[in-house]
Design brief:
Elements (H helix, E strand, L loop, with lengths): L4 H6 L10 E6 L2 E4 L11 E9 L5 E10 L3 E3 L5 E4 L2 E4 L3 H7 L3 H4 L2 E5 L11 E3 L4
Length: about 130
């Protein structure tokens, strides 16, 4: 379901805009934090970033990661912003707006706006098949 800004506010849906970082402090609550790096502490983070699709398209994104000794992107939390509306990867509206087919999306690379602690700044591969 596409999410407009009004939907995000009305239903308290967590989306991170560019350069925003939230830490999950409970099953349904987050806290916005300011940090130079996303720490290696095992917690879940919602962060703004970019995804790089297999066909070369780059999109502003919001996604959730679990961070310990490596970053685990939680694949069902990836939203992309297109024309000021947020679309979940793989939903019909996403394909309509981008003109892409499922095969054009996966695998993709992702990069948070705030770097991960201890990692060089580089896109990370997400190679699940969607």
């Amino acid at each position: 379901m596409p999410l407009k800004e009004s939907d995000i506010k009305e239903y308290s849906i967590q989306i991170a805009e560019s350069n925003e970082l939230f830490v999950w402090v409970g099953p349904c609550s987050v806290k916005k934090i300011e940090a130079q790096f996303i720490p290696l502490d095992g917690r879940k983070y919602e962060c703004g970033g970019t995804i790089f699709l297999a066909n070369g398209l780059e999109l502003q994104a919001s996604f959730r990661i679990q961070k310990s000794e490596y970053a685990l992107l939680l694949d069902d939390t990836v939203y992309t912003k297109i024309d000021d509306v947020w679309y979940k990867l793989g939903e019909p509206g996403f394909y309509v707006k981008t003109g892409l087919e499922k095969i054009d999306v996966f695998p993709f690379d992702w990069l948070p706006d705030i770097p991960l602690e201890g990692n060089k700044i580089t896109p990370f591969a997400m190679d699940f098949k969607g």
